[in-house]
Amino acid sequence: xxFGKKNEGGDFEGGLRDEIIARKKHLDxxxxxxxxxxxxxxxxxxxxxxxxxxxxLATAYFDLKExxxxxxxxxxxxxxxxxxxLMIISLISVTQEVGWLxxxxxxxxxxxxxxxxxxxxxxxxxxxxxxxxxxxxRRSEALRLQQEYSHKEAVAKPYQKFRTQLEALNPPSEKKxxx
Length: 179
Description:
By secondary structure, the protein is mainly alpha-helical. The chain has helices at residues 15-66, 69-94, 111-156, 159-169, 172-178; strands at residues 5-6, 12-13, 95-98, 103-105. It contains five helices and four strands, in the order ββααββααα.
């Protein structure tokens, strides 16, 4: 069983020994095929990785840049709403009486009347003024961050292309000669 059976020429055929040798040869051939496939796939992955990382980085920067669109719109609306409220409060506080054809304004001819008029307005004006300043600063901050991410996206997009162009200008054979 181990060595097989003798044939007419006196040599052993078949048996466990021949089967083991055949399977070992088959496994060696399969191993060589898999090593070739592994090397080809690995080389392809390695060649795609730098482009994928720079493209992924550019996409991430684009997403971050776009995420600031809504806060910028909201802070702009808040700023304009607070300016509108300030204008309405000012208009209401300077009018004493409104008729069909006449508008009577508050008398601020003396300094004491002007000061008291301003003091009456301050509890309403100060919070709205603070809100306008807050919205303006936050909008500016969001816009600045959006511009920074836009710049980073613009830098990350062509990085891999520039790298491949530089490598094309300096072939590997020239690199070896320089060393």
